[in-house]
Amino acid sequence: MSTKVICHIDLNAFFVRCEELKNPLIEGKPVAIGHEGRGGIVSTCSYKAREFGVKSGMPMFKAKQLCQSLIILPVDFKYYQKKSHEFFNYVKRTTKLVEIASVDECYADFTNVIKNNKNPHKFFEDFQKQLFKETKLKCSIGIAPTKFLAKMASDMKKPMGITIIHRKDAVNILSPLPIGDFFGIGKKTAPRLINAGINTIGDLYSLVKKDDENAKMMLGKFFYIISDLIEGKSNDQLDLEPWDPKSIGNSTTLIEDTDDFRDIKETISNLCKEVSERCIKENKLGNTLQIVIKTPDFKIKNKSIKLDKPTNDYKVIFDISCKLYEKYFLGITVRLVGVTLQNLIDPKDLVIQMTFFDYEEHEEQSQTKLLIEELNRKLDKPLLMRASEIKKK
DNA sequence: TCTGGGGTCCTAGGACCC
DNA sequence: TCTGGGGTCCTAGGACCC
């Protein structure tokens, strides 16, 4: 088995760090990034804030309760994006083999870079220091033969940590960790596993080795890759392609819960504008339109429909969104609404099959009309009995 | 004053076609 | 008359991640 040197590089408290660069006076203080209005949550917080028990994902009002002196700042995504680019550009100067995982983390293949290096630990220390010198950003680095182990490693020491996991040590290093630390096991599955007496990664590992039926049931397909993940035999191939979105959506929590369709329609219109603009910017057409609602009891419902012709046109998106909403959600009190275009394709990949109608009617207006008519037919389809079914009866 | 918004992937059931 | 499966597409829901 070949052994690569895969790094997971994670920026520490990235949003907070960016804000510190804008305003050094807040350095070392309890800071939370996020908005304060209805439904506001902590997006990221400083290490000082964490000492008070503040965590990301926590409602902002709760964070304020925990820490009276908490400094709350709104998200400035544009600036974070700029710093993010600086970070990726820095990494790419050392190796071209970089997979961007999110705004503040990436995987990098350092196999060739590190090949003849006598002191890898020193190398990564210098790498960290130089990043800080050039961008003022702090990072933790996990180094391992696979992406999964590298990711687990970078989480083990923060901030400014360097953690190396060799394949031969992987099982021993991961085994004592709580099951919730397993990348891919989240806040739903972890409690279920703990309930079944599976408290650590080691507990899970031994059950996998015993081919435990109960664990198999709880984990589905995931069960079958767990031992490879833990043993360092999983994926070590980085995806070097630039981000290619498969869906683009926009959703918002309303100022207050409502069942008034006039208000909701207004919101849907704004969401559709945003979705359309972003699809146009990304040069994507969507094949499927989904609308989603969240009710006051936090239940999420969605309805989607496949379009006959991929689109990113605001008018089409808006008309179909309203139709779907009226058909399925009218009268329901909602907390949140969202619109997403899915199954995105590149216009140049679209084989244009010119129908007679398209050929005849060039105006955008007519195309929209055609789509709406098509949609109406589709929405009514479940009500019609198909010929074959009638025959059966 | 309870719990965001951006995504990806997996699962499962029904429709439909052969 | 009685009773098939396999394969694919569409849709809804849910878990997970940052």
Entry keywords:
about 400 residues, alpha+beta, MutS, DNA mismatch repair protein, domain I, DNA polymerase, domain 1, Dna Ligase, domain 1, four-stranded antiparallel β-sheet, 17 helices, 12 strands, DNA-binding
Shape: globular
Helix content: 40-55%
Name the CATH class of one domain: Alpha Beta
CATH architecture of one domain: 2-Layer Sandwich
Helix-strand string: EHEEHHEHEEHHEHEHHHHHEHEEHEHHH
Can you summarize the main beta sheet?
A: 5 strands, mixed
Arithmetic mean of pLDDT:
91
Strands of the biggest beta sheet: in what spatial order? 5-6-1-7-8
Q: Report the total helices.
A: 17
Number of strands: 12
Structure, explained:
It is a single chain. The chain is an alpha+beta fold. The protein contains 17 helices and twelve strands. It has helices at 14-22, 47-51, 60-66, 77-94, 111-114, 120-135, 147-154, 170-174, 189-195, 201-209, 213-219, 226-231, 261-282, 314-328, 356-360, 364-380, 387-392, and strands at 6-11, 31-33, 44-45, 71-73, 98-102, 105-109, 139-144, 162-164, 247-258, 285-294, 300-311, 334-345. Strands 5-6-1-7-8 form a five-stranded mixed sheet. Strands 9-12-10-11 form a four-stranded antiparallel sheet, covered by helices on one side. Strands 3-2-4 form a three-stranded mixed sheet.
